[in-house]
Predict the 3D structure of the following.
Amino acid sequence: MRSRNAGDGPTGVMQRAALILDVLDGATEPMNLSQIVAATGLPLSSVHRALEQLVALRWVHRHGKDYRLGMRIIELGSAASQQNVLRRAALPSLHWLHRVTGCIVHLGVLDGDEVVYLEKVGGELVTGIRSRVGSRLRAETSSIGKALLALDRPARPDSPVIDGARELRVVYEHEKCMKGFSCVAVPIGTPGHEEPAAVSIFGSLTKIRTDPRVRLSVQTAAAEIGRRLHVPRSGAAQRHSPHYRPNRLGT
């Protein structure tokens, strides 16, 4: 969910609706009217009126006194995701990376000070991992965010981690979000790229620390995504895919 400063309350109908949708998007469980009012800071009457309109549009679903995102907003989000050029270019490499490492794979982009996940491959059966397509988090709090900040040179103050990501093209974080697990993130493109993007994996601490092929696989995937984004849309370019080695890394 996007952060909002006190006193910056939205005044337009669309702004209020967007704030309510942001709140519901960040919720792990359905929310009732009082919870949405408290989370948005909007007047109860405004929230109730906006929710009624959103329910009528199928952007929000109401069950009893509880509200959650509706099927129409999910359909629109899915359509936008399918149309995204970066996501389409990255999917073959993301699935390959998941197959050869056995790790959860993320594709993210930078939106202001936040990471937005465009794609996630794997992890359906792993409890405690809340990342999902469309979710957001502060960029400086994650490995993929730091890799993204390394691409956003003109707008970002330097730091040792960001400088290292620019120079080494890789960010490691060990046991930051879960004991026994690590993350590796690699930026896609170069500093000042039009749409900063990065790919990351989340997997066993032991595997990531001891097997150099894991890092090389992430770097290979990021490089291939970058090349695919800049290949002319000719028949030959679309027909030929990279020759990856199919072996799975040891667990």
Q: What stands out?
A: Residues 84-239 form a domain with the Beta-Lactamase fold (CATH 3.30.450.40). Confidence is low (pLDDT under 50) at residues 1-8, 233-251. Residues 212-229 form the longest helix (18 residues).
